[in-house]
């Protein structure tokens, strides 16, 4: 897969987002949002997990060398337009490498720091909830969507729920058909029969 190329031309591309909460307070970091994912520089990843940048460089190198992730897929060179340092009134293009959410999560499971531990606890709770319940939700975001990814996922969630409930109705209809064909005394319009089947 070819490397994703993106261009940042103004500060509006950046947002501040609360990713998780540590025992000592809330960890916020400035991020770049594009293609429904989060992008951070190595320095911002270091800030997020409370370590120095060389530690992030080391972990990313190991992640790519072991084949856990492909660098060309999870990283991208983004261009910033900044003021020229030596010539007043002149701008220049500065290229910076960013890493997406897949890389950020992988690093978070390798870093040894209090903030990284808090991240792992948070991420593990979300994963456990998904494995046990089949879903996980950010209740506050659904109640008060800020569309940080440029999209409100509430309607998508409702659509999926409707699809699940539709499958449930088909299941109960199949049970009714089986009951009808197997029961000699089944009467379709009998209130008691319908009530019993409808509440199985």
Mean pLDDT: 74
Let me know the largest β-sheet: 3 strands, mixed
Shape: elongated
Q: Helical element count?
A: 8
Radius of gyration: 25 Å
As residue ranges, the low-confidence spans are 1-12
The helix/strand series, from N terminus to C terminus, equals EEEEHHHEEHHHHH
Biggest sheet: strand arrangement? 1-5-6
Number of strands: 6
Beta fraction: 15-25%
Span from first to last CA?
50 Å
Give the helix proportion (percent range): 40-55%
Q: What structural class do you assign from the helix and strand content?
A: alpha+beta
Number of domains: 2
Written account of the structure:
The protein is α+β, with helices and mostly antiparallel strands. The protein has two domains: 4-134, no CATH class; 156-198. Helices cover 48% and strands 22% of the residues. It is built from eight helices and six strands; from the N terminus they run E-E-E-E-H-H-H-E-E-H-H-H-H-H. It has helices at residues 42-49, 53-65, 71-74, 101-108, 114-133, 139-143, 154-182, 191-198; strands spanning 4-7, 14-22, 25-34, 37-39, 75-83, 91-99. It has a three-stranded mixed beta sheet. A three-stranded antiparallel beta sheet has the order 2-3-4. Helix 1 crosses helix 2 (53-65). It is elongated and about 85 Å long. The two termini are 50 Å apart. 15% of the residues are buried. Residues 1-12 have low confidence and may be disordered.
């Amino acid at each position: 897969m070819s490397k994703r190329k993106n261009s940042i031309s103004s500060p509006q591309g950046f947002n501040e987002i609360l990713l998780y909460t540590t025992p000592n307070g809330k960890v916020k970091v400035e991020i770049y949002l594009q293609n429904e994912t989060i992008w951070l520089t190595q320095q911002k990843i270091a800030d997020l997990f409370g370590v120095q940048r060389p530690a992030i460089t080391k972990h990313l190198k190991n992640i790519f060398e072991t084949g856990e992730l492909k660098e060309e897929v999870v990283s991208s060179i983004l261009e910033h337009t900044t003021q020229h340092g030596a010539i007043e009134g002149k701008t220049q293009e500065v290229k910076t490498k960013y890493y997406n959410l897949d890389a950020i999560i992988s690093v978070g499971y390798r870093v040894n720091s209090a903030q990284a531990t808090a991240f792992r606890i948070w991420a593990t709770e979300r994963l456990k909830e998904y494995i046990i319940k089949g879903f996980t939700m950010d209740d506050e975001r659904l109640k008060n969507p800020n569309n940080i990814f440029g999209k409100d996922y509430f309607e998508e969630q409702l659509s999926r729920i409707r699809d699940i409930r539709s499958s449930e109705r088909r299941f109960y209809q199949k049970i009714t058909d089986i009951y009808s064909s197997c029961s000699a005394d089944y009467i379709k319009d009998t209130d008691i029969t319908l009530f019993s089947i409808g509440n199985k």
